C-alpha cells in the first residue's frame, strides 16, 4: 500500500520557475495522469517524484515518509521513459533482468521474474533475441516488462508512447492499463496527449506554465473545465469559443446575445456573483449542428470539410470568427454554402473573459422528462 504526496513543490532553474508551488496526492492503486503542453512542468514534476531532480522547495512523501532528499536508487520506483534505452548487446532476457541484477536478486529468482514479466507482455518466445531484431512495438513491450519486474512501490512513466505510431499506441496503452490493474500499484503517467489521459486515467492533473489548472476525474475535467485553458486543451477537436454579451444569469437559466441572436440555456452550475456585461460562450464541435439555413439563428459560411470516419469536421466562418462542427459525412451541405448554426443548449459553457474562469455550465437534460426533439434541444 503506497500513497504519494506532493506538497507545495517548487522547482526553479535560475530565474525560470518550471514548477510553481503545486500539491497533489496519488492514492494506492490509482492511475493519475499529468497532462499539459510542452514546457508546462509535468516532466519536471515527475523527475522530482522520482528523485532525479531536487526540489527548490516543498516535499515528496511516500505513505507520509519524507522522501525529498532520498536518492533515486533508494526510492524503489519502477520508471519508464520516452527513450526505450534497451542495451543492444544484451538479450531481451538480460535487459529485463538487469534492474533485478543491480539489486542483487539471485539468478533463480531473476529468471522466475523475467519469465513471468515476459509472459504477461507476450514476448516469452523472444527472450534470447537482441533488441535490434525487434520492431518498435516489441521493444516497447520489453521496456515495459523491464519496468514491472521486481517489487516496486509505484510506477512513473514519462511519455512512453510518444514515438509509436497510432496503432501501436493503442496496443501498448492497453498493456499498461492491464499491468497496472494486475499489480495494483499507484501510477503517475506524464503525457501531452489528452486522448491518452482521458482513456487511461482515474484522475487527471492539467498543468500549464508550471501550475495546476485542474485536478479531477475524466468526466469532471471534460464536462466542468475550470477555465478556458482546460476547456480548450481537453477534448478533440478543441472547444469553440464565441464572444457574447450576458443578458441574464440566474440559478436555473442563462441568456446570452451573439450578434443580435439570443441563446438561452438551462444552468446546472453558475457563479451568481458574476455580473460582467461581456462573456465567452464555449461549445464543443460535437454539439454544433450545421444545416442549410435561412438566417433565423446564427449563420456562417462553410469554408472547409475534412472527412474523418463516418463524420467530418466542418470549419465555418461564423459570427465571431472561425467555428468548428462535427457533421455527418454524407451531409448535404457543401464548401462555400451559407449555413445555419445551431448550438445544443444542454452542452454550453460560459466563461469570464477577464479571469477565463468557468461561470456557468448547461444543465443536463433530465432523463425523467419526455424526450426533447432536436429542434427544441438546439438554441
UniProtKB/TrEMBL annotation:
Pfam families: ABC_tran, OB_MalK
EC number, as in UniProt: 7.5.2.13
Membrane topology note: Peripheral membrane protein
Localization per record: Cell membrane
GO CC, any one term: plasma membrane
GO molecular function: ATP binding; transmembrane transporter activity
Gene3D superfamilies: 2.40.50.100, Nucleic acid-binding proteins (2.40.50.140), P-loop containing nucleotide triphosphate hydrolases (3.40.50.300)
Domain annotation ABC transporter: ranges: 4-234
Catalytic activity line of the entry: D-xylose(out) + ATP + H2O = D-xylose(in) + ADP + phosphate + H(+); L-arabinose(out) + ATP + H2O = L-arabinose(in) + ADP + phosphate + H(+)
InterPro entries: AAA+_ATPase, ABC_transporter-like_ATP-bd, ABC_transporter-like_CS, ABC_transpr_MalK-like, ABC_transpr_MalK/UgpC-like, Mo/tungstate-bd_C_term_dom, NA-bd_OB-fold, OB_MalK-like
Keywords from the UniProt entry: ATP-binding, Cell membrane, Membrane, Nucleotide-binding, Translocase, Transport
Leading EC class: translocase
Keyword Plastid: no
Region (Disordered): 357-379
Keyword Lipoprotein included in the entry's annotation: no
Family: Belongs to the ABC transporter superfamily. Carbohydrate uptake transporter-1 (CUT1) (TC 3.A.1.1) family.
Chain's role: Part of the ABC transporter complex XacGHIJK involved in the uptake of xylose and arabinose. Responsible for energy coupling to the transport system.
Quaternary data: The complex is composed of two ATP-binding proteins (XacJ and XacK), two transmembrane proteins (XacH and XacI) and a solute-binding protein (XacG).
Protein name from the UniProt record: ABC-type D-xylose/L-arabinose transporter
